[in-house]
Sequence to fold (790 residues):
Amino acid sequence: MSTVSTSDQESLVRALPDVLPVLPLKDMVVFPYSIMPLSITGERSALAVDHALSEDRMLMLVGQTDPALEEPGERDFHAIGTAALVVRMLKLPDGRVRILAQGLARAGIEYVSQTDPFVQARIAVVHEAPVVDGMETEALVRIVKDQLDDIAGLGKDLSSEVIVIATNLTEPGRLADLAASNLELKLDDAQALLETPDGLERLRRVSDLLQREIAVLQMQQQISSEARQEIDRSQREYFLRQQIRSIQTELGDGDDLTEEIETYRRQAKELVISEEANEELERQVRRLERTHPDSAEGSVIRTYLDWLTSLPWSKLSEDNLDLVHARQVLDEDHFDLGSVKERILEYLAVRTLKGDARGPILCFIGPPGVGKTSLGRSIARALGREFLRLSLGGVRDEAEIRGHRRTYIGALPGRILQGLQQAGTNNPVFMLDEIDKIGADFHGDPSSALLEVLDPEQNGTFRDHYVGVAYDLSRVLFITTGNLVEPIQPAFLDRMEVIRLSGYTQEEKLQIANRHLVPRQISENGLEPGHIRFTHAGVAEIVSSYTREAGVRNLEREIASICRKVAMRVAGGSQKQVRVNANRVQKLLGPQRHFSEELLDRDRIGVATGLAWTAAGGDLMLIEALAVPGRGELMLTGRLGEVMKESAQAALSFARGYAAAHDLGQIRRHDLHIHAPAGSIPKDGPSAGVTIAAAIISLLVDRAVRRNVAMTGEITLRGEILAIGGVKEKVLAARAAGVETVILPRLNERDLAEVPQNVRRQLAFHFVEHMDELLELALVAPDSVAPSGD
Fold:
């Protein structure tokens, strides 16, 4: 059966019965004059269709308020639906039924007359309000027709018949229903249009929906166009790359470059790197593809890619946080240093409890040869990490730390990233040696560059100038070393925890030599334990007579010198075994040598023994004073620093006051010459103030200064004695030189706890607050004055 014409449809509308079988619609809306195929599901729907076909072929098509219901009741239908004519029915082989229905008119359900065996309702046709012809109506009709043409032109699937029918329509309601039935509307929007009886209002809503559809189609077309352009560009690049490869193959260098590029891309996939680094790597690979293999630029890109792919971005060594093992390693590698070892174990304990602990950088400060660098190696061995060492002494170029920019010829990463690349892990123990000797010039300040390296809050995104992308240094365990604290930049020092290592006592040196130095030098010089044997007296002779230092570096050199001489005899066959005792040491090393001041042979007027602290440890410092007739001028010699010169001025002023108070004559009538022997060695610091004052007053009172008394302290104009530093080193120097009594400021009494107990037992200590107390202890009695001069 064919569809009905418009005139026939109007006749059918007039002939609509009052009661029609109801066919519920779940997910669609049928508009008047539209023809829709419908699938019949459910027994009641099939019976409703059968009833319609047996009568006048008319049905009431109405949507369900809840599409999920399988058997809707009388309250589950929308109020407005469409009375329709069943144009055709088709029964499928699987038992399903499909019909073709043509909408006739809007109709409202007055009430449901029956629900079993199918739903049947009394209906009433909804007549449209009359439309007043006018300019607005005509304009709206034209707009909708143009919009239908636009969506057809934008790719909307509209048949040409629909466009033709729409072109010939002038009634707003009919045009609105035609457009709505051919749009993919939401169910609520379609039902709202169906329930709008005013044709002009319905056309306005349809126009708005058409405009939205046009915008969606335009956006869809834009996206599709961009996607096609991207595909076209990718295909074009692919073809160009293939052409480049073909040309390079013809030139004989294509295979190597292709393989190299594939290698870089494979490494990029295998590396666990940051998104920024990955983007930079891919960008450089694309540049390499476009570069001639033999060009200078290609070589620069390859070098950069080699560095970028060889850095240990995510490779970590597993930490061994066993504190018992760590203590064992530290005890094996180092003798004594109890407080230092304890601090290291505390650090490891915190790392055990909190894996990402961010504490201050450890900074070992002490004289040369006391084991600062070897402590770093021991920490690395205890943790099971790789060990790196970078000496900063004399480094003046910031690029040594941050690297050179790639615009420079021969540019390379800084020594921090170079070290990590050599270590192959991202969490080594990195020791920065000689941090107090780092310099600065027009190339930049390396100390400032190191601030970012060592600051736990910043080094997670360290940016090397050469690599150009952020690199995480937060897992690296940085340790610094130095001889002095004063030269270190304050902002730099603020980020570090200073751990001081003092010099060793003679007994400690003996233990270190027997446990570590002697076995190591025997092995390094190719000897067997049976070829050479060091006696206790022999090692003690080397320590006391051939080395006077805070550390053990020179001691190891002297032991190595003996081992070489013995190796020459063993290799020549003249001697198979050598026993190194005190006499043999003197034969092998020559006359005894001393590197510090010796005690005076007797008490002298105007000569006092002071204690000094140097980067190499403690030392004796003799101060000589001589008064000659003159105009009260002060002469200072012996390469004294500014602070020491000021101490001499303060000591002289105190001596003048002392002379006036004790009626010792006019010191202004004499020129005073203060001299510190070993004039080629620079000397500075405030701790020689009391020694200078003692030497001057010794002249004034004509009383000698005791030769076996050593003193140290800063003096004020009132004669008060202030605290000084380096107590342990100074005391060890006094003991090594044979001093019997040491005079220290009262405030330094607490520092005596750092001095080994066996050393404290061998010396007499006096703690004073004023020069009067010191003079009573240091000057000999008036009735036993020794002659001045030789």
About this structure: The chain has 26 helices and 24 strands. The first helix runs from residue 6 to 14. The CA atoms of residues 3 and 782 lie 146 Å apart.
